[in-house]
Design brief:
Length: 303
């Protein structure tokens, strides 16, 4: 993989966090003041939860690498983060992974209740749509371009992406999947939204079809690598470091890369997928700087 410093990724994640957290906070205040309790407070609780902001950083990096310069890209990055936030709220519900800890805090259904957290998840989807539409206008994009952004985000969040992958993941609990089956689960439940983050950055910058194709290939590979690294962390890190319950995959008898390939084999696979993603960018002549730094971060991160 290209030699990029960890510092580049950390700086970009910090910048993305600062920009996106401001938008999320404004959104949280709007929810808490316009929706009746406990729903408004629960929406604000979910929106204020402190994640790593990897997807927003990918939107920013992809946008800039394709020549984008407007600060209004933050709205696109925020929309992706809100879809991710909804998925975490629902993933933690008793009917899914049934978890009590997320981002170092009680999960939304633990802080409130299951019915409220279920509504929070559903309500965040149109909130993401509004955020995306507003950003598209601020970026000066034509309606057809805003439509392409919306398709990229919500198709990735749908049955051919995140929902479909999660569905396969839930159905597979207690069964041993082979590698191609596990790749399909990981690409759907986690990879699709990461791929969409990269594509949305490119679409917002008006990237060429060739660059968008390379972005799609890059996003696909690093999206898969992200979930493989997640499997490794679940098996090797502590709950305190992760801010979520470690060892949950084993408890739920999930098939993982670690189960199939061991820790070293899974790390190697994650690194190989990230390299393949970068190769697609290099072949299309994309300036890989920050994207390479993020790809490296995704497979070497400790939380
Ligand atoms: C109706 C079947 C059905 C599904 C609804 C809940 C859901 C949709 C999908 C779950 C998708 C999901 C939560 C996948 C896991 C992705 C993942 C590795 C999340 C952790 O991402 P990080 O590490 O987290 O970026 P932070 O907290 O840093 O943002």
């Amino acid at each position: 993989m290209v030699d990029t410093t960890e510092g580049d990724a950390i700086a970009l994640l910090g910048e993305a966090r600062e920009m996106v957290d401001r938008e999320l906070e404004a959104c949280a205040v709007r929810m808490a003041t316009t929706m009746s309790p406990p729903l408004g407070d629960a929406l604000a609780y979910a929106l204020r939860s402190p994640g790593k902001r990897v997807r927003p950083a990918l939107v920013l990096a992809a946008y800039r690498a394709a020549g984008g310069t407007s600060p209004a890209i933050v709205g696109v990055a925020t929309a992706v983060e809100i879809v991710h936030t909804y998925s975490l709220v629902h993933d933690d519900l008793p009917c899914m992974d049934d978890d009590s800890l997320r981002r170092g805090r009680p999960t939304t259904h633990r802080a409130f209740d299951v019915a409220t957290a279920t509504r929070v998840g559903y309500l965040l989807v149109p909130v993401a749509g509004e955020e995306l539409a507003r950003a598209g206008k601020e970026l000066g994009l034509a309606p057809i371009a805003i439509g392409r952004l919306a398709s990229a985000l919500f198709e990735a969040g749908g049955v051919r992406g995140m929902v479909g992958g999660q569905w396969l993941d839930l159905e597979a609990e207690g069964r041993r999947l082979d590698l191609p089956q596990l790749m399909a689960v990981h690409r759907g439940k986690t990879g699709a939204l990461i791929r969409a983050a990269v594509l949305l950055g490119g679409l917002a910058a008006g990237a060429s079809d060739e660059v968008l194709q390379a972005y799609g290939a890059f996003g696909d590979e690093i999206g898969l690598a992200f979930q493989v690294a997640d499997d490794v962390l679940d098996a090797t890190a502590t709950s305190e470091t992760l801010g979520k319950t470690a060892g949950r995959d084993a408890e739920l008898a999930k098939s993982t890369y670690v189960g199939l390939l061991g820790v070293a084999g899974a790390r190697e696979a994650a690194s190989r997928h990230a390299s393949q993603g970068l190769q697609a960018l290099n072949e299309a002549g994309v300036r890989v700087g920050s994207l390479a730094a993020l790809a490296r971060y995704i497979v070497t991160r400790s939380s």
